[in-house]
Design goal:
- With 240 residues, the chain is of the alpha+beta class.
- The chain folds into two domains: 195 residues, no CATH class; 33 residues, no CATH class.
- 44% of the residues lie in helices and 20% in strands.
- It is built from nine helices and seven strands.
- β5 and β6 form a beta hairpin.
- The N and C termini lie far apart (50 Å).
- The relative contact order is 0.19.
- This is DUF763 domain-containing protein.
- Pfam families: DUF763.
- It comes from marine sediment metagenome.
Length: 240
């Protein structure tokens, strides 16, 4: 049964646009496939999830595959190369990849379900983990970065990891978030285990332990007050 998730790290990268050359992506996919096969054969699919959830290992992995180490594209391209490289090997490896960049990220639940017949567990908790990890980094942690990439890695036994990325068009940076499902924690209270970041800025962090009372009050207000009453009260605050 999938456990609650724990975010394992954050990485900040310059925001770059454009597409990777097809010849490079093809080589990255082939190399990603072979490296994944070796790791899974030697240590099992769970170990691959642990490594992907480490922002430093993932960054080094992107360099080994031949991509620019200091670019937002390393996240989307490496995840895409892994997904393409593992295509057709999911059953053999017991490791699956869903989601991706932009509109593809919205297909994550359907893609998880499509592998349901190969899993030993109900896919519903995996879909829930995918949605909750995205909601936490997009809404509960209001740091100015809007998610545009979400890739969900999981095993047939229900273990999972998430790599997702948001962009801030003001400071021209992208921020990558890593999650690992095996570390039992609350989705809405201190989900992160590590932060790898040079960028600094103010954030409304509703998943901090110090925000417990705020979360409780927000929940109470949402359950007890009508939306129109809340809007009316907020309008009054502007006049104080």
């Amino acid at each position: 049964m999938p456990s609650s998730g724990q975010r394992t790290g954050i990485a900040n990268l310059p925001l770059h646009y454009g597409k990777v050359p097809p010849w490079l992506f093809a080589r990255m996919s082939q190399l990603a496939r072979e490296i994944t096969i070796v790791i899974v054969d030697e240590f099992g699919p769970q170990e691959m999830l642990r490594r992907l959830s480490d922002p430093f290992w993932f960054q080094a992995f992107g360099c080994v595959l031949g991509y620019d180490w200091h670019s937002s594209g390393v996240t989307t391209t490496v995840c895409g190369a892994l997904k393409e490289g593992m295509r057709g090997l999911e059953k053999e490896l017991g490791l699956f990849v869903a989601g991706g960049k932009g509109k593809t990220s919205r297909k994550t639940p359907a893609e998880i379900e499509s592998f349901g017949h190969l899993l030993k567990v109900n896919p519903s908790p995996l879909i829930y983990a995918s949605r909750m990890s995205a909601k936490v980094d997009n809404s509960a942690l209001q740091d100015g970065y809007q998610l545009y990439h979400h890739t969900f890695f999981f095993t047939k036994d229900g273990s999972w990891a998430v790599i997702q990325q948001g962009m801030n068009e003001i400071n021209r940076y992208a921020r990558r978030y890593h999650w690992l499902g095996e570390k039992v924690a609350d989705f809405v209270c201190e989900p992160e285990a590590a932060i790898c970041s040079q960028a600094r800025g103010e954030a409304l962090n509703l998943v901090a332990s110090e925000s417990t009372q705020a979360r409780n009050v927000i929940t109470d207000i949402a359950a007890e007050e009508k939306p129109e009453n809340i809007v009316t009260q907020l309008k009054k605050l502007k006049t104080l």
